[in-house]
Amino acid sequence: MALKIIDSCIACDACVIECPTGAIEASDPIYVIDPLLCTECIGYHKQPSCIPVCPVDSIILDPDCYEDKKELLLKFQNSKKGA
Length: 83
Ligand code: SF4
Ligand code: SF4
Hints:
By secondary structure, the protein is α+β, with helices and mostly antiparallel strands. It contains one helix and four strands, in the order ββββα. β2 (24-25) and β3 form a beta hairpin.
C-alpha cells in the first residue's frame, strides 16, 4: 500500500529527504506522494521512514492503493532495474 499525505500537512519539507525512492514532492498547498514510487520503504527500511519525521502526523497508509508485500518488493526491484 502506498502512503499518502493528508490536508493537515504544514509543508515543512522534513519528509522529503527521508524518502529513499524520491516519491515525495513539494506541491501546493500540501506535499504529495507518488504511489507509483512509494514502496512503504520495503527494500530500504523495516518501517516507512517518512512517518516518524512528520511533526503533524500527516502521512498515512492509502487504502485506495492496496498492495501486498510481494507487490511492493517487485516495485522496489523494478525501480532498481531502472536506476
Ligand atoms: Fe518514501 Fe518510504 Fe514514505 Fe513511501 S514510505 S513515501 S518510500 S519514505
Ligand atoms: Fe507535510 Fe509532514 Fe512532510 Fe512536513 S513531514 S512536508 S508536514 S507530510
